[in-house]
Design goal:
By secondary structure, this protein is of the alpha/beta class. The chain has 22 helices and ten strands.
């Protein structure tokens, strides 16, 4: 009998403390929900289970035939029969392997189909989650749920589920064969099993604890190396002359890692010695018992070949039985995996399109804020009473100190967030009553931070309007003062912009964003500091383009440049969650309030800088 040296002593057979604390509650609803993903493939599952059962039954034959060969030799049988028995054993092995391959293939097909279904469902679900979800959730967690967690379902289907069925099939068929051949020797073989499995689990748990501690120390040493041998870390060490101290820290942790690894290796060697003794003892007990039954004639039907076959069959039991003892661990982890996935599926989405949502014409429609309040955190209100109306076709500017909530005000229009109280209305219709897709199709937004996909300029432009022609693209880029730059590129509109548009300058990305909105041709325009990434020359070059874009459209502009603010029909000043001041530039300066303060501290300095920069540019050219 081969010793179970190949057994993994990692955390597979044991739950961590965290897993024990967060162990999912088993309920009929959870099981039914999991089965709902398996149900479409029930026929394939039936084929898998049939294949597993056939493989388990056929797998008995080589062991049984081994005993028959021994009996044939003892009886002085013919060579031809020996060859036939050997051929039968080979065919049984081949058949078992072929069935195993087919079972594995069907299993993999089922797993990948279920993963395909779940990833589609997850992606669709996340696409429709509100903007607040993506601002609060870590991107790494989202990717983990999409990829790692859902991909882990494959190991549950092809690993855990199949392993349980396969191990049960092997154990049941082997026990039936053992008791059919000799119930006395079968009992002897079964009694030996705990002598192998129980010590294995006990020592395995001890070694796992040591390995866990060793891994924690390895993480600590890796953290130390990453921090002190990085560019910034090594510079800090040198500037504060902490080389010796960091070396002493490293020596201490490295010594602890070494001690733990030596301890783990020692425990493993002694375990293998003990298990080697048990693995040699088990066959001896069966052979001894079988010999006794034959010599004492306690079982006149028992043959030497039967004893040999039973030793081989008992060997088939150890690993499946040990694996079945870990069912609770595998089952718990499988449920935990599905629970993590379902937690994301069950995340509420408060911003949904209403049934039979309205699709009114919003051309030249007013945008009205009716005593709007909003907060990200209920205990910290950001907007308390925003009340104003932007007449159709007019351009209003919103100004305020950093963090005053200017961007939040405009984000309520396309329902990136929903108001806590009050209402935002377009043409007298609450935005929450609009068909959500239709609402966002009517609104064009140019944000302060332009995001571009890692594709070509053409692909990024067509994202706004897939049916746009080449002439449409050139017209939009000409208005945005970007066409000449694109035409100068070797690949023209097929120039790759790089990840997040890194191959373009800030001004080029911003102008591409503006061209994209021009292609969308929205009825309502929101500019959230849209010229912040542009130098004064670039800003002047596209200011006319923005004016053309805003013409005939209801526009709300968040701006920090006075040149933009001065073109507004009206200026709104946000402070302490309300519209503190409202009026023209001259009217607000005359009030001597918040706007005057912003003008003195921000706008005037920017204006003076731009004026000085323009003079310097003219002097240089001269």
């Amino acid at each position: 009998m081969s010793p179970p040296n190949g057994r993994s002593f990692g955390p597979r057979g044991f739950l961590t403390d965290e897993e024990k604390k967060s162990r999912p509650k088993v309920s009929g609803a959870l099981i039914r929900r999991i089965l709902s993903y398996l149900r479409p493939y029930w026929f394939q599952f039936v084929l898998v289970f049939i294949a597993i059962l056939l493989s388990a039954v056929i797998g008995l034959r080589p062991s049984i035939i081994t005993g028959q060969i021994a009996d044939e030799i003892q009886a002085g049988g013919s060579m031809a029969k020996l060859v036939r028995l050997l051929l039968y054993a080979f065919l049984a092995l081949a058949a078992s392997q072929i069935i195993g391959v087919l079972e594995s293939y069907i299993n993999a097909w089922i797993s990948q189909k279920i993963i395909f279904d779940m990833k589609n469902q997850m992606y669709d679900h996340l696409q429709h989650m509100p903007h607040a979800f993506f601002t609060s959730e870590k991107q790494g967690d989202i990717i983990t749920r999409m990829n790692t967690d859902i991909s882990g379902v494959s190991s549950v289907i092809s690993g855990t589920l199949s392993s349980i069925v396969s191990n049960l099939a092997v154990v049941v068929t082997t026990l039936v064969a053992l008791f059919t051949m000799s119930w006395r020797l079968a009992l002897v073989g079964i009694v030996v099993i705990p002598l192998l499995i129980l010590p294995t689990r006990r020592v395995g748990k001890t070694r796992w604890k040591i390995l866990s501690d060793s891994q924690a120390k390895n993480d600590e040493i890796n953290q130390l190396v990453n921090e002190t041998l990085s560019v910034s870390g090594s510079l800090l060490v040198k500037l504060f002359t902490r080389e010796q101290r960091e070396y002493e820290r490293f020596v201490t942790v490295n010594g602890e890692v070494t001690d733990l690894q030596l301890k783990e290796q020692r425990s493993g060697k002694w375990f293998r010695v003990v298990m080697g003794m048990f693995t040699q003892l088990a066959p001896l007990l069966i052979y001894f018992a079988g010999g006794y039954f034959i010599i004492a004639q306690a079982d006149t039907t028992l043959k030497v070949g039967t004893i040999i076959a039973m030793v081989a069959l008992v060997n088939r039991l150890y690993r499946p039985v040990e694996s079945l003892l870990n069912i609770h661990v595998d089952f718990t982890r499988s449920l935990a995996l599905f629970t993590r996935i379902f937690d994301y599926f069950d995340l509420p989405n408060p911003i949904r399109s209403p049934e039979n949502g309205k699709k009114p014409d919003v051309t030249d429609a007013d945008v009205a804020y009716d005593h709007v309040a909003f907060s990200y955190d209920p205990e910290k209100p950001l907007l308390t009473d925003i009340h104003f109306t932007v007449p159709g076709g007019k351009m209003y500017a919103i100004v305020g100190a950093s963090g005053s909530g200017k961007s939040t005000v405009v984000n309520l229009i396309p329902r990136l967030y929903d108001v806590t109280s009050g209402a935002v209305r377009i043409g007298g219709v609450d935005v929450r009553d609009f068909d959500l897709t239709y609402l966002r199709q009517q609104i064009g937004v140019v944000t302060q931070e332009t995001y571009l996909f890692n594709g070509t300029i053409r692909e990024n432009l067509l994202y706004a309007n897939e049916s746009a022609t080449q002439s449409d693209l050139e017209r939009a880029c000409t208005i945005a003062n970007l066409h000449d730059f694109i035409a100068a590129q070797p690949d023209g509109y097929d120039t790759v912009v790089g990840n997040r548009g890194l191959k373009l300058s800030g001004g080029e990305k911003q102008r591409l964003s503006i061209a994209r909105v021009i292609l969308k041709d929205p009825k309502i325009l929101i500019l959230d500091e849209a010229t912040s990434a542009l130098d004064s020359i670039s800003e002047n070059a596209i200011q006319d383009a923005l004016e053309v874009l805003m013409e005939g459209r209801t526009s709300i502009v968040i701006a920090h440049r006075l040149s933009t603010i001065l073109k507004a029909d009206r200026i709104l000043v946000v402070r302490d969650g309300v519209i503190a001041e409202e009026g023209t530039h001259e009217e607000l300066l005359a009030l001597g309030g918040t706007y005057r303060e912003l003008y003195e501290t921000q706008f005037r300095k920017v204006l003076e800088y731009e004026t000085e920069h323009e003079k310097h540019g003219e002097h240089t050219e001269t």
